[in-house]
Fold this sequence. Notes:
Blueprint: E1 4-6, H1 7-17, E2 22-25, H2 32-40, E3 46-49, H3 53-67, E4 71-74, H4 79-83, H5 85-93, E5 98-104, H6 123-128, E6 133-136, H7 143-155, E7 162-167, H8 168-171, E8 174-176, H9 193-204, E9 209-213, H10 221-231, E10 235-237, H11 255-262, E11 267-271, H12 276-282, E12 290-295, H13 300-303, E13 308-311, H14 314-324, H15 334-348, H16 354-364, E14 370-372, H17 377-385, E15 394-395, H18 406-416, E16 422-427, H19 428-431, H20 438-443, E17 449-454, H21 459-468, H22 483-489, E18 493-496, H23 500-513, E19 517-522, H24 532-535
Parallel strand pairs: 2-3, 2-4, 4-5, 5-7, 6-7, 9-10, 9-11, 11-12, 12-13, 14-15, 14-16, 16-17, 17-19, 18-19
Antiparallel strand pairs: 1-8
Amino acid sequence: MSRKETTGQAMTRSLIGHRIDTVFGIPGAHMYDFNDALYGASDKVRFIHTRHEQGAGYMAYGYAKSTGRIGAYTVVPGPGVLNSGAALCTAYGANSPVLCITGNIMSHLIGQGRGQLHELQDQLATMRGITKTAERINHLSEAGPVMADVVSKMLSGRQGPGAVEAPWDVFGQSGPEIELPIGSRAPHPAVNHDQVAAAAALISGAKNPMIMVGGGAVDAGAEIAALAKLLQSPVTSHRSGKGIVADDHPNSLNFVAAYEYWKNTDVLIGIGSRLELQFMRWKWLPKGLKVIRIDIDPTEMVRLKPNVGIVADAKAATQALLDTLAESPSKDRTREFADLNKGAKSRFSEVQPQLAYLHAIRQALPRDGFFVEEVSQVGFTARFAFPVYGPRQYVTCGYQDNLGFGFNTALGVKVANPDKAVVSVSGDGGFMFGVQELATAVQHKINVVAIVFNNSAYGNVLRDQKQAYQGRYLGSDLTNPDFVALAESFGIRAFKVTSPGELKATIEKALSLDEPVLIEVPIEKGSEASPWPFIHPAPHAD
């Protein structure tokens, strides 16, 4: 006689079948039967409960962004889903497979507008607006197929977040245990060799090609480095592409240096990138520029039409390009690239005190450690001033740029990478968005080193109100707690440092402690040099 199981148990079996080993979240009434199923599978799935739904979503995001595997979380419907919505937006913007599992009101009441507990007018539509795919399980029989379908869509092509909801009454429905389907990534589009040949022809005539990599190229580092060496081309990146080709590789150009090279670029080769840097931040195109794009998402070729578009996986298409291009002895230009990098570092050395502190962090962080940025003066500066040596090691929020993602995300990064050092940098404003997750770090022994740069302000807003609005300050000035005392009240070891040298030594000590640590760095309000002239440079003169 076959065993019986509930919908919640079938969903949990599906998670295990899809090799999901961690679920972040907060239990609640609609979810009890699913929560209980997680309890029953606690030998296979770790449940990490958080102190806010946004924290759960961001921890799942950190897990996914740093590994490429699915990061899963569960929250109650309605306000729980909405509270975690910023994390789903981030996952969507950064192409990360984050899975939200939630409930809904009783089946027969959906769409009735009766005002049931946690009711949203159309929750499924709301979730579909901030995910790649969202579906409802209406009956136990749908649990396996719906879960497999959502996972398949999340992982196929351009990856992204997904959501699954089930009505309150459906989670507890029971029936015979049956074999569940397992979703898988769809095959990558086949490389079109005519497109590759057209790209090779453009490249063969190029004098100053540039390679721009984004998050879609995260698994193609070796091929991209080989292409750069063959072409004697520089490789640059903005955020998600950092570390795909190590910053100390001879062909790697810091993007401030790359802007100088850009004035003479004749062919731009974008690999797994929206080309945000060139088309949205630099806002200046060299005359006669030709653009080649390699991207798995065909709609990208419509959004920003290239001269040659190759719709394919970055690794496969770059290898095909390598195989097609003739081996020809090229003049070694790596000294030129080194000089450009040296000049850029000299120019942005004025961005203080951020640069000195970032240098201290880089010295203390192991080469394979993770650096989780934040929307802050240090975070913005890190985009061009923090060297990264491997893919996924620089964890960013992508284009959503939402304040407060950093510390929560770092906790998820550490859960996914327990044997690696994880450092989070936040401003005081952003850190307070998720300060309650210090309790989660203690309870679950998540040993992140959280560095809080405290300038008692939303620093960017303060600068803009000073410069563009003649000092008409509104809401940019912050009164803060004593962060060291606050952290200690959670049971977290905490330190206050006032110099880069002291920060380096304290990070090294914190990493040796192997426990959650908070480091506060006081910064004089409004004292930071602006990093923006290097991120949004003035256009070149024609």
